[in-house]
Specification:
mainly alpha; three-stranded antiparallel β-sheet; elongated; Fumarase C, Chain A, domain 2; two-stranded parallel sheet; histidine ammonia-lyase activity; Fumarase C, Chain B, domain 1; histidine metabolism
């Protein structure tokens, strides 16, 4: 059984977020965290008794922060805050996103700057460990003052209200799920409703998950590109390290080295590598693959740097400082995360666009160097992969629209108190959609390139690309009369997203 992840005052890693979000790994609070939480709570309780109002402790919120709330109404204040802020709409977001949000909010609370009670931190950890996922709706966050509506839905669950998905995927009332798992609802006290809702955990969680998905997809696109390059009788000389060193971007060097390794020992490449080979000016979608794939890798590296900084951050407002002061701040603004979420949508669209161009070249009899039209078994009677490329084109067109930045928009809210917002949640949602589309585009290139490599027989592909073809052929037959293509695309997509394709190819790379 996987050991639970220790959550305390230290940063957590991207790998830990993925483990909790996707693999159901549990959590435990460190003793250092418990001391920090109790120390901060003591400061909040002292301020709660003081005659001077303190924002988030004894006042209203946002544009209503000028009203002092008497002690006997403060439980009502917290309850009202959570209920009113749990104003999401639309479809539920994916459980993995909600689990990531819960973990990231737990880590901020455990850092000891939010002033919540230890009972509240324990309740959030217990919810994660029980495998209960609050129903969080897709729309409602502006990415400023944190992901308010999504986080409020989680806080609502801690109060025993709303709905959850259980470990079996059933959507049930929270009260029912709590009874089945032996959990108790909590009554929030001073500062706690605000601390549970005022963070960028939704957009950050989605950034971490997207970064993991894009890293894998960029390894996959090197594979499908190598297959297309090989099948189109293109040269591998342009990937030589001495050429890449002239433009020393690390991502470019990595992709070029991977393409070289993927094409090593290919009989197809060797067949036209002699002194009479004139293939030194291949189309850009072939020749410039390392430059585009590499730029995407470097963009991802920047996004991962931002994610790591955010995972080391405490995002709340107000915060409890070491000397006991409770101070307002602007760290909840989602701009740092929103910008890189938007940034990543650009290479997602561009990498997919280049893959679609390679596929189209494989299907075009005038540019495919001897392959049949549309890779059809009997062109005219059969259409081959003609319409599969339509699917790619439709997805790529959508990805280009999704690459338009969300973070340049801002709609003022809360009576103009929150007059500039990040839209980071929206940037994250469209990036997830973009990655979904990229996987489909790569699946189609995998299908087309594998068929093209089959058609180059008796020449054999490289051991690496040959392993990719062999894996696909265990699920999808080779060339023959037209067949229902949608299931084949779905199977290829599963090989891309599950890691099976990379698992098959990686052992053959030097």
């Amino acid at each position: 059984m996987t050991q639970p992840i220790a959550v305390g005052v230290e940063p957590i890693t991207r790998e830990q977020v993925v483990a909790v979000a996707r693999r159901g790994t549990g959590v435990r609070l460190t003793e250092v965290a418990r001391i920090a939480v109790d120390t901060a709570r003591a400061h909040v309780e002292a301020l709660a008794e003081a005659p001077r109002p303190t924002y988030g402790v004894s006042t209203g919120f946002g544009a209503l922060a000028t009203r002092h709330i008497p002690p006997e109404r403060r439980a009502d204040l917290q309850r009202s805050l959570v209920r009113s802020h749990a104003a999401g709409a639309g479809d539920p977001v994916e459980p993995e996103v909600v689990r990531a949000m819960m973990l990231l909010r737990l880590r901020t609370l455990a850092a000891g700057h939010s002033g919540v009670r230890s009972e509240t931190v324990d309740a959030l950890a217990a919810l994660l460990n029980a495998g209960l996922t609050p129903v969080v709706h897709e729309h409602g966050s502006l990415g400023c003052s944190g992901d308010l509506a999504p986080l409020a839905a989680i806080a609502l669950t801690l109060m025993g209200e709303g709905e959850v998905h259980d470990a079996a995927g059933r959507r049930v009332p929270t009260a029912t799920a709590f009874a089945e798992h032996g959990l108790r609802a909590i009554t929030l006290r001073e500062k706690e409703g605000l601390a549970l809702t005022n963070g960028t955990d939704g957009m950050l969680g989605m950034l971490v998950l997207a970064a993991a998905d894009l890293a894998a997809a960029l390894d996959v696109v090197d594979v499908t590109a190598a297959m297309s390059i090989e099948a189109l009788l293109a040269t591998d000389r342009v990937f030589a390290p001495e050429l890449q060193a002239l433009r020393p971007h690390p991502g470019q060097a990595r992709s070029a080295a991977r393409l070289t390794a993927l094409l090593a020992e290919s009989e197809i490449v060797a067949s036209h590598r002699g002194p009479d080979c004139n293939r030194v000016q291949d189309a850009y979608s072939l020749r410039c693959a390392p430059q585009v794939h590499g730029a995407a890798r470097d963009t991802l590296s920047h996004a991962e740097l931002v994610a790591d900084r955010e995972l080391a951050s405490v995002v709340d407002n107000p915060v409890v400082l070491a000397d006991g002061r409770v101070e307002s701040n602007g760290n909840f603004h989602g701009a740092p995360v929103g910008y890189v979420l938007d940034f990543l949508a650009v290479p997602v669209a561009d990498v997919a666009s280049m893959a679609e161009r390679r596929t189209d070249r494989l299907l075009d009899v005038h540019r495919s160097h001897g392959l049949p039209p549309f890779l059809a078994a009997d062109p005219g009677v059969d259409s081959g992969y003609m319409i599969a490329q339509y699917t790619q084109a439709a997805v790529v067109s959508e990805l280009k629209r999704l690459a338009s930045p969300a973070s340049v928009d801002s709609i003022p809210s809360s009576g103009m108190q929150e007059d500039h917002v990040s839209m980071g949640w929206s940037a994250a949602r469209k990036l997830r959609s973009g990655l979904d589309g990229l996987h489909t585009v790569l699946a189609v290139e995998l299908l087309a390139a594998a068929r093209a490599l089959d058609l180059r027989a008796p020449l054999r592909p490289s051991p690496a690309t040959g392993a990719a073809v062999a894996l696909l052929r265990r699920h999808v037959p080779g060339i023959g009369p037209d067949r229902h293509l949608a299931p084949d695309i779905a199977v290829a997509r599963e090989l891309v997203t599950s890691g099976a394709l990379l698992d098959a190819v990686t052992p053959h790379l030097a």
